[in-house]
Amino acid sequence: MIQRVQEIKNSIGAFLFKLENEYHTIQWPNVLDNFALLSGQLNTLGKLLKSEKVPAFQNCVLLPLLLSQDRDAELEKLTEGRVFAFNHAVVPDYLRTKPEPEVEERIQAVCNKATGMNAEMAQKQINAMNKLTSNILDIINSHRESMDSDASQKTSMSQTFSQTDTSNLIAATLTGKGLKTNRRPDIGQQPGTMPNQPQVQQKTQAAMGKAPSSIKTNIKSSSHPYQRN
Amino acid sequence: MESLPPMFKAASLTTEYLLQGSIMEQSRDVLLQRLIGLCDDTKSPPDNFHDHEMVFHMKNTTIQQPLVYRVRHSLVQSDCWSLRYLGNTEMGDKNKPTLTRTSIDCPVSENVVQYLNELGFRMDHEFVVKGYYFHKGRMKVTVSKFFKMNQPSNVADNLEAVCPSFLVELSVVTALGQEGVGEDMKNFAEQLKPLVQLEKTDHRKITMNQT
């Protein structure tokens, strides 16, 4: 059990260190992860304490025999430097078994109010509460339904992209596929040299024996301006 | 510059990390809304662009592949011209989340076309591209549609969409070897699924299929 406590202490320490030193870079999901870790560890500790094998701490009696104002080296070592002396300042905090007086007062007030209420009023309030919760439940359920239908709609949604289109577009940007036009030999362009080049390329490709049909048409179109010239 | 040790040169920002995908026309608005939500200070409607790109080739007698330069200028801001060189795309191995390629982009004046022609470059093709762009940290997202120009050098009329879908590109231009970038991009791409599948597309395959 001490080991468990030690683990929790370590993770809290690590988390605090993170918060102090990396507060400007730390991400929210990271913080949540840390919280999840802590709550998991606290849960296991709680379970351990509740299990039947462990004697209830309530049955153990702790009696402060001696209070002293002097520094206690042994105690300091045990608590890793947190408590220097077992004196009047710390004892009420460490050996507290009841809530603080103010808290007790408030609890008392609420208890008084509860006992002071008559049965009819109580029934009314319970009814109102039930109504409210069922209303909220309804709202949540309807939301869930609409979300579920949304989700199913999303999965059934038609394709938003097409692999062929991607390939076509990339080909267009890379090599100008589908972008080349029958160009007039005009301003700034030397006629002849321009259509020449694709021709050379296509001839070599044709020699490699790939998709001859498209090549033919390409050659035709690219040699048009040449002939007109 | 010559006197600098090589490590300073290597740090120049010329490597583009790239993921590509496409979105169909009817789903474009959904994607734009999602990008507005995900990216840095975007407004509705998002920033758009309308560019004209000319692709110049120079033939080489020894290498079959031509040298390609791309001149792009905005049709909205008339004095905004740029010249870009894109290297071959590398797939890398499976562990690499993105494509990489060399990308050198520099602003130029509008007589660059004349200059390239003087150098021996010839225009291979041109097109008009319209779309939207977003920033998320150092990542850039573009959603763009490509138009074929049926009349040469007429960027206003007689345009024909190459494909009804929009090309979606997620890219970062930075120094080589920054693998963290790829991870960031992968995570961002993950957030756009299933709307768009941004992935490494093997460019060699596409170039080959075309032939």
UniProtKB/TrEMBL annotation, chain A:
The keyword Chloroplast does not apply. GO terms for cellular component: core mediator complex; mediator complex. Keywords: Activator, Nucleus, Transcription, Transcription regulation. It holds the Pfam family Med8. Residues 175-229 are annotated as: Disordered. It is found in: Nucleus. One of its GO terms (molecular function) is RNA polymerase II cis-regulatory region sequence-specific DNA binding. The keyword DNA-binding does not apply. Residues 190-205, 214-229 have a biased composition (Polar residues). GO terms for biological process: regulation of transcription by RNA polymerase II. It comes from the Eukaryota. Belongs to the Mediator complex subunit 8 family. Component of the Mediator complex. PANTHER family: MEDIATOR OF RNA POLYMERASE II TRANSCRIPTION SUBUNIT 8. Component of the Mediator complex, a coactivator involved in the regulated transcription of nearly all RNA polymerase II-dependent genes. Mediator functions as a bridge to convey information from gene-specific regulatory proteins to the basal RNA polymerase II transcription machinery. Mediator is recruited to promoters by direct interactions with regulatory proteins and serves as a scaffold for the assembly of a functional preinitiation complex with RNA polymerase II and the general transcription factors. This is Mediator of RNA polymerase II transcription subunit 8.
From TrEMBL, chain B:
Keywords: Activator, Nucleus, Transcription, Transcription regulation. Signal peptide: none annotated. One of its GO terms (biological process) is regulation of transcription by RNA polymerase II. One of its GO terms (molecular function) is transcription coregulator activity. It is found in: Nucleus. Its main location: nucleus. GO terms for cellular component: core mediator complex; mediator complex. Belongs to the Mediator complex subunit 18 family. PANTHER family: MEDIATOR OF RNA POLYMERASE II TRANSCRIPTION SUBUNIT 18, MEDIATOR OF RNA POLYMERASE II TRANSCRIPTION, SUBUNIT 18. Component of the Mediator complex. Component of the Mediator complex, a coactivator involved in the regulated transcription of nearly all RNA polymerase II-dependent genes. Mediator functions as a bridge to convey information from gene-specific regulatory proteins to the basal RNA polymerase II transcription machinery. Mediator is recruited to promoters by direct interactions with regulatory proteins and serves as a scaffold for the assembly of a functional preinitiation complex with RNA polymerase II and the general transcription factors. This is Mediator of RNA polymerase II transcription subunit 18. The lineage of its organism: Eukaryota, Metazoa, Spiralia, Lophotrochozoa, Mollusca.
